[in-house]
Fold this sequence. Notes:
transmembrane; two-stranded antiparallel ribbon; binds zinc ion; single chain; two-stranded antiparallel sheet; oxidoreductase; fatty acid biosynthesis; FA_desaturase_dom; lipid biosynthesis; mainly alpha; 51% helix
Amino acid sequence: MRETKEDIKPVAANELPPEFKKFDKPLGVEQHVYNQILVLYMTHTCILITVLYYLPFGIVSPWTIVPLIVYGYIGGLGITVGCHRYWTHKTFKANKPLQVIMMLMQTVSMQYPIFKWCRDHRVHHKYTDTDADPHNATRGFWFSHIGWLFLPKHPEVEDKLKIIDISDLARDPIVRFQSKYYWQLVPIVFYIVPMILFQWMFPELTLFQNFVLQHVRYGVSLHFTFFVNSLAHMWGDKPYDKEISSSENALVSFLAAGEGWHNYHHTFPWDYKAAEFGYKINVSTMFIHFFAMIGWAYDLKTVSHQLLVDRINRTGDGSHPLFNHAHVHDKTPINNDHKHSETSLPAWGWGDKALSKDDVVITETLFTSKRRG
Ligand SMILES: [Zn+2]
Ligand SMILES: [Zn+2]
């Protein structure tokens, strides 16, 4: 199963389709400068106006929070289910209508096109906690949370973005379509559709207030996503692998629709639940199950329970109830040489050629279907 280096054909930056290339400088601006303008100044100013003026002085109805949460969730699930579990890690398959729905939901989140988000995230999984990790948590809470978006990329990150394999995304017509028409789709699904809905629900809103509220939705959902990179890489138990920084964090799971079970996720990134337990604070898994039940999602990858227990006993920190404390542990430190060898780095997901035979063997597939989509 393990391939030689020659068999791995990464897509170099200069081989990317033109739809992808234009996003290395969004709208012609350096990415960190663009982020500073859009996210840091504009969005956070909108949050401050709402929290310090609109809500306490009754300028906008507190009931506007309800559609903000609902529409925020639509974008959030576009990230957690679509961008993360489907396109980055390939944990399940989806028919074309579901792919289109997930693509539009991901556009609602305005976290850059799918390919760009996935490329960063695959690099994060492969080079976690090193200089090549885009949001390297060893550089502190603020860097991993949001600072990484406002600073020029570390040269190691630039290098790895060029070699990480995203050839599957470069071949995906829906991913390419989204990149090609991204700046046409964003105004429609991020501004026009929700603003019409808000105006209909709250006719007293001015256009400016409506615009500000959309950025509140954006900013809050961004922070909830960012907690996965910051809080879930700092605080929590490590029942599956004590050698990595990612941790089990229930608060992050609550805020990020089930993405806080992060020690499990980094140990088994190809599991569609991104957690050991299906419905335990995990709205994203419920979403996938719903579409699996109607036949739109299928071939859901998960990890066999018995083999999971072996892993808990071998590399866990002892916090898991099934951890066998009588087990005599090998005291030799876990070999971290993989951090220096490109061919034996952790796999980013199911499609990664670096996925080991052992990991394939412990994987089970649910809702299998021979031919769909
Ligand atoms: Zn992570
Ligand atoms: Zn991930």
